[in-house]
Amino acid sequence: MYDKDALGYIHSIYTGGMVDGPGIRTVVFLSGCSLRCMYCHNPDTWFRMRGNKKSVGELLEEVEKYRSYYKFSGGGITISGGEPADQPYFLQELLKGCRANGIHTVLDTSGCANAEIAAEVLPQVDLLLLDFKAFNAELYFRLTKQKIERPILTLKQARELGLPVWIRFVLVPGLTDNLDELREMAAFFKEFANIEKIDVLPFHKHGEHKWAELNYEYELSETEPPSAEFVEEVQRVFDSSFDSESMMSVAFGGQPTT
After folding, report:
1. Rounded to whole angstroms, how far apart are CA atoms 131 and 55?
2. DSSP state of 140
């Protein structure tokens, strides 16, 4: 059972997504985020009240329209943001509703929810898409204004549940490009057999105009995307850290939605 009348604040809904999990997906962007990532390209999702209220039932009606595409492609719904876990009750009930209706779920999250919320939410998820910002604690706080302990604990909770995880990591020149720290991160990830893929995403500034429109200071206006050669070098760092028989892989895709 799930609460069809549970209300959440929704920023937007994108149909036909193909980079936020397997298959063709409906991507639901929730409003509200407690992180303040320096390179966020959706700062318009930070405040919950800027979203539109929708019930779990209303969202499921929208998601159900595309069931044939999910079945054909192995897709489903991806719940993103903002930070979905900032609306824990709504998130949990939406996930329950999807499971009750046989819809595959991906949760795209920073992993910064507290342990109690994660313990309620993660068992309802089919695939965790974890946006791992940095491995150095001081750098993580500088990037997000949050502590690194939470995403690490979320990853451990996912391992205990046997929940498949895809890692997303944004490569930002001058910030997250320290090769020694990347090697440490890769070695740490090797401890988690439930990690199926690591996406190294090159930094971009496609959302810089949103910061200006909202009168927010954008600190990375002078930062350029990493070169293709350096992205390949980072790939080799991760490749060299895993055994050839490991389930781990490194792939490259679009910028994360959080």
Report:
1. 26
2. H
